[in-house]
Every structure is written in structure tokens, then in C-alpha cells.
Amino acid sequence: MAVAPSSAGTLTAPEPTYGPLAPEDRPQGDHLVTEDDTPMDHIYSEKQQRLLTSSLYASWHGPGAGGTFIALANVGLFAGINMPPDVPDVMVSLDVTFPADIWEKGHRSYMLWEYGKPPDVVVEIVSNTIGGEDSVKLQHYARIPVTYYVIYDPQQQLSEHTLRLYERHPTGYVPRQDYRLPGVELGLILWQGTFEDREDTWLRWCTPDGQMLLTGSERATQERLRAEQAEQVAAQERLRAERLAARLRELGLEPEA
Fold first, then answer.
1. Model-level pTM?
2. Are the CB atoms for 75 and 109 separated by under 8 Å?
3. How many CB atoms sit inside 10 A of residue 8's CB?
4. From the centroid of its chain, how far is CA 220?
5. Does residue 166 lie in a domain region?
6. How far apart are CA 82 and CA 157, in angstroms?
7. 171 and 247 co-located in one domain
8. Element (H, E) at 48
9. Is residue 210 part of a domain?
10. Is residue 245 in some structural domain?
């Protein structure tokens, strides 16, 4: 879009336009840089992003009865025209689905005018002190507006708080005193355990009653352990029945078939 001259004769950029756009006002998207192929995160952050998205797809069916959702990691978020994109570490948006053709230029990122709403949750993982997660980004996501903003600071580089959750109110973000996300039907917990052979503290999703959402691998392991336990119980029952039959025969009684 053209840059307009100001009253002083200098050039000023037009104000960003937030929110859904009418079809005739939507940009074509051909000029937008939707990916630059530049690595942006360290190993822990990459794993943490994947843990959050993969567990949702493996163990969650969305809010309510079969609600739709999308979860993305390190993908551009275009909140309005005349604005550069954000690249949240993780974002979750409810009641939306992916376009049929995600290879189309205008569908390669989360463009608010295409999906018709901002993400419901954005998670930023702090890796240094210059990212602005608790200042610039906090104010920006409140303006879009993202309903819930999560700052996960595993090394406490920005404050003494490892995990902070903000909820959007008319006046801006307000810190929540717990880690539940009403309306999204999710919560957050810190979990000490092993993910992909890495023992560490991880940020995990949980259900409103505190049940942690499992990855596909964890679900498979859980099912295997249940099957093994069921087999052990069956084997013990067979052994008990065989011992009882042997004892009855010793007493001159024929066990029932």
C-alpha cells in the first residue's frame, strides 16, 4: 500500500489495520514473506514447540464436542495489513480449519483476514533477554487481540517466574493466578520428565481436571503397558485356575470344565 505524505511534507507509514477484512480489502499476499528458511530457535525451544503441538493433535479433540482447532509452531502470524508478521513459538486457534490448499501463497501462514479471528492462545518461549516477551510482545498480542498469552521462561531470564499466563480484558492483559484457560478447556503444567531422550522440565498442556495431554509416543507406550499388565493378570488367573484344578484332583474331585 502506498505511503502517504504527512502535513509536514514528510512520508509516514499508514496505520496498521487489525482484525478481519472484507473480501475486497484482503491483500493478495503475493508480496508477503511467509517463510525465510532461517533457523530461529535453539534445540530446547524447538523440542518444546513440537511437544506442545504434537500432544494437542495426539490427545485433544478441541473444546466442547468435537470442536475444530489448529496448532502451529514457528509460523508467521499476519495480524493486519501494513504490519510485519509475528512468529509465535506456538499458537492455537479454535473453531477454524486449514485451507484446502496450504501451498497457496496466501495460505502458508496464519493470516487473520483468511481465518477471520486471531489465535486464542500464543506461547512464547524465552531464550534471551532481548526478545521483548514481557514488554513489546505482550502489548502487541493484547492489541491483536490474542485471548491468552503465555510466557514460558525456563531459565528465568526475564523474572523470577518460570511461567506466566495473561488473559485479555477490555483494558489489556491481566495476569491469571492459575494456569487454566477458561473457554479453551485447557490448562498448563510444568512437568519433569523425558521427551525424545531429553530429561528436563517441560511445559505441557493438561485438561481442566489436570490430566496431562500425552504425545502419540506416550500414548503408544501407555497402551503397550496396559496390554502387558492385562496379559500378566490373565496369566496369573490361568495359573491360579491350574493350581485349583490340581488340588481338586488330589482330593479325588474332577474340576468343572
1. 0.78
2. yes
3. 6
4. 21
5. yes
6. 32
7. no
8. helix 43-59
9. yes
10. yes
Give me the amino acid identity at 201: T
- Residues 6 or more apart from 234 whose CB is under 8 A from it? none
Place of cell 509465535: 88
Q: What is the largest CA-CA distance in the chain?
A: 113
pLDDT values of the chain reduced to their tens digit, one per residue, 257 residues:
333 333 333 333 344 555 555 656 555 555 555 455 455 568 999 999 999 999 999 999 888 766 899 999 999 999 887 788 899 999 999 999 998 898 887 788 999 989 999 999 999 999 999 999 999 999 999 999 999 999 999 999 999 999 999 999 999 999 999 999 999 999 999 999 999 999 999 999 999 999 999 999 998 887 777 777 877 877 788 888 888 878 878 887 887 76
* Locus of grid cell 497457496: 104
Report the alpha-carbon distance of residue 234 to residue 179 in Å, rounded. 42
**Domain membership of residue 237 as a residue range:** 215-257
Query: At 142, which CATH number?
Result: 3.90.1570
Interacting residues of 133 by C-beta distance below 8 A, sequence separation 6+: 124, 126, 151, 153, 158
Residue 189 lies in a domain: yes
Please provide the size of the chain in residues.
Answer: 257
